[in-house]
Amino acid sequence: MIDLYFAPTPNGHKVTLFLEESGLEYHLIRVDISKGDQFRPDFLIISPNNKIPAIVDHMPADGGMPLSVFESGAILLYLAEKTGRLLSGELRERHVTLQWLFWQVAGLGPMLGQNHHFNHFAPQPVPYAIERYQVETQRLYQVLNKRLERVPWLAGEHYSIADIAAWPWIHSHQRQRVNLDDYPAVFNWYERIRTRPATERALQKAQQV
Ligand SMILES: N[C@@H](CCC(=O)N[C@@H](CS)C(=O)NCC(=O)O)C(=O)O
C-alpha cells in the first residue's frame, strides 16, 4: 500500500495518473496547501521541501521499513522501477524518457508555474514578469509540439512517465493563456491522454478530496 500526500494540483495529478495506470493500491492523504498543512512537522519529515506530492511505500522492494519519497520526478521514477511500468528497460528508450522527465521537472513545470503565479496570484501586476513567463511558456509549448510532431509519445513509441509528468501542466493550458489550437500535435497528444480510463479515474479521485 502506498500513502500519497496529495493536493489537486498539476504536481499532485502526476502521481495519481501513474497509480491509476499501474493499478497499485494507494491511499490519498489530502494536504491543504492553502491552509499551510505542508509546514506541519509530521509532513516535513516526509517532504522536507514543504511541497506535495510525497509518498510513503509501506511495502518497499527490499522488504525493509516504510520508504518515503518526495519530488514528483523522483516519485515517478521510484514507482516505475517498483512496478516495471511506464519506463522502458531498453537503454536508449529509457534515457530518452528520463530526458523528457527531467525537462518537465526542471523546465516546463517551474516556468508554467511562474506564468500561473504572475497571471493569477501576484498582489500587483508585474508586466515584465508576465511577459517573460508568457514568452517562455510559448517556447516550451513549441518544443513539445515539435517533439510530438515526430513521435506519438515523449519517449517515442510508448506512453511513459515523461508523458505523465507533462500532461497535468498542459491540462491547465487555459490558466496559462495558451490556446492549444496553436499547437496541433500537443492538442492531439493531450486528448489521447485525457480520454484514457486511468486519467479519467485519477481526475475523479482528485475531485473527491
Ligand atoms: N519540484 C516539486 C514541486 C512541487 C510543488 O511545487 N508543489 C506545490 C503544489 S503543485 C506545493 O506543494 N506548494 C506548497 C508550497 O510551496 O508551500 C515537484 O515536482 O514535486
Shape type: globular
User: At CATH's second level, what is the architecture of the largest domain?
Assistant: Up-down Bundle
| Rg (CA only) | 17 Å
**CATH level 1 class label of the largest domain:** Mainly Alpha
* SS-derived structural category: alpha+beta
Number of strands: 4
- State mean pLDDT (0 to 100 scale): 98
- Number of DSSP helices? 8
Give the distance, in angstroms, between the N- and C-terminal Cα atoms: 18 Å
Proportion of beta-strand residues: 5-15%
Q: Helices and strands, in N-to-C order?
A: EHEHEEHHHHHH
Question: Largest sheet, if any?
Answer: 4 strands, mixed
InterPro entries: Glutathione-S-Trfase_C-like, Glutathione-S-Trfase_C_sf, Glutathione_S-Trfase, Glutathione_S-Trfase_N, GST_C, Thioredoxin-like_sf
Pfam families: GST_C, GST_N
Family: Belongs to the GST superfamily.
Protein name: GST-like protein
Task: Give structural notes.
Helix 4 runs parallel beside helix 6 (161-171) and helix 5 crosses helix 7 (184-194). It is globular, with a radius of gyration of 17 Å. Helix 1 (10-22) links the parallel strand 1 and strand 2. The protein has two domains: 2-86, Glutaredoxin (3-Layer(aba) Sandwich), CATH 3.40.30.10; 91-197, Up-down Bundle (Glutathione S-transferase Yfyf (Class Pi), Chain A, domain 2), CATH 1.20.1050.10. The chain has helices at 10-22, 41-46, 72-83, 91-120, 127-150, 161-171, 184-194, 197-208; strands at residues 2-6, 26-30, 54-57, 67-70. By secondary structure, the chain is of the alpha+beta class. The two termini are 18 Å apart. Bound molecules: glutathione (GSH). Residues 7, 9-11, 33, 38, 50-53, 71-73, 105, 109 line the site of glutathione (GSH).
